[in-house]
Write a structure and sequence with these properties.
The chain has helices at 2-15, 20-27, 31-38, 46-56, 60-64, 70-88. The chain has 90 residues and is mainly α. The chain is built from six helices and no strands. Helix 2 (20-27) packs across helix 3 (31-38). It has one domain: Orthogonal Bundle (434 Repressor (Amino-terminal Domain)). It is globular and about 40 Å long.
Length: 90
């Protein structure tokens, strides 16, 4: 479950076009500290998890209900990347 949650956080961050540095700044922590949280190198407290979910606009109930499957999030990212590629080819 932990790895799935971290994947959801990472994919949702990318979906919103935020870098790890952007999220870290909003949380008031260093980019390396946030990177270690998102990559599972450091444990995330419930308080910090709630803050991260808040920054990313993720409702914890949606995670529990299975709204955020990794496949769904990856498909969203692929579609957004395709759109960005098309826009950059102008």
């Amino acid at each position: 479950m932990r790895n799935k949650l971290l994947s959801i956080i990472q994919l949702n961050r990318k979906k919103k076009g935020l870098s790890q540095k952007d999220v870290a700044k909003k949380l008031g922590i260093s980019a390396p500290s946030y990177s270690n949280l998102e990559n599972g190198k450091n444990e995330i407290t419930l308080k910090r998890l709630d803050e991260i979910l808040g920054v990313l606009g993720i409702d914890d109930e949606d995670i529990i209900d299975g709204k955020y499957s990794q496949e769904t999030m990856e498909e969203i990212i692929k579609n957004q990347n395709r759109i960005m590629d098309l826009l950059s080819d102008k």
